[in-house]
Amino acid sequence: MAFDIKNFGITSDASTGNLPQNYTFYTNVDSAEDAITDGYFNEISDRVEVGDYIYAVMSDGAHGLWITSDNGVIPVTAEPVLTLSNYYIYRVAQASFAGGSTTLVITSTGIVSTDLVFTSITASTNGCVIEKSVPTTDTITIEFNIDPGAATVVNYQVLRLP
Description:
By secondary structure, this protein is mainly beta. It is 2% helix and 45% strand. It has 1 helix and 11 strands; from the N terminus they run E-E-H-E-E-E-E-E-E-E-E-E.
């Protein structure tokens, strides 16, 4: 039962402003109960900050772990996230956007409103964040906090229940 830095990585770099960072962690040995033990994440205390999020795939399933203290000991709150074994990857794709608006509507035949959509910005002229991504019949509507500008590229992944 020990944290292994080789299985820890950043998944979204919010290095501008004060946005929280998102990380991924994997272990097939330790559980969420182990992770919320004081000191488990001490090795990364210089990398994470209060409010950062760790998506952790652990021996007892997938968990969302929130960094809740900055006192050198990194306790986390384990919150079970959706059981991905019930979902399958329906689509993984990329969309380009020329900017000029804070809304991008992606036409993607087959998408339904009950799908789970995960989006990330790969490139943009202006520093921006995705505020929400909403699936509807054959479309995904992405709302940005500001106009992302020309040459914006968005990756998206769609999960679906069987």
